[in-house]
């Protein structure tokens, strides 16, 4: 399972749609127990990296 971390920044819906189009299972979450289960973690919004790290 791929988890897109929802920290309130980034274009999550487009990232999710693109990954699903490739045939992967994708979950959007900010819950630690879900993130811990991920095979892959995506932090969307590379332009907001500094803001994301402060969250």
UniProtKB/TrEMBL annotation:
InterPro entries: Class_I_gatase-like, Imidazole-glycPsynth_HisH. Keywords: Glutamine amidotransferase. One of its GO terms (biological process) is L-histidine biosynthetic process. GO terms for molecular function: imidazoleglycerol-phosphate synthase activity. The keyword Lipid biosynthesis does not apply. The keyword Iron does not apply. PANTHER family: IMIDAZOLE GLYCEROL PHOSPHATE SYNTHASE SUBUNIT HISH. This is Imidazole glycerol phosphate synthase subunit HisH. It comes from Staphylococcus pseudintermedius. The lineage of its organism: Bacteria, Bacillati, Bacillota, Bacilli, Bacillales.
């Amino acid at each position: 399972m791929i988890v897109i971390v929802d920290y309130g920044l980034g274009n999550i819906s487009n990232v999710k749609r693109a990954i699903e189009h490739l045939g992967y299972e994708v979950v959007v979450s900010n819950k630690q127990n879900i993130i811990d289960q991920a095979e892959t973690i995506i932090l969307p919004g590379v332009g907001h990296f500094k803001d994301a790290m402060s969250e």
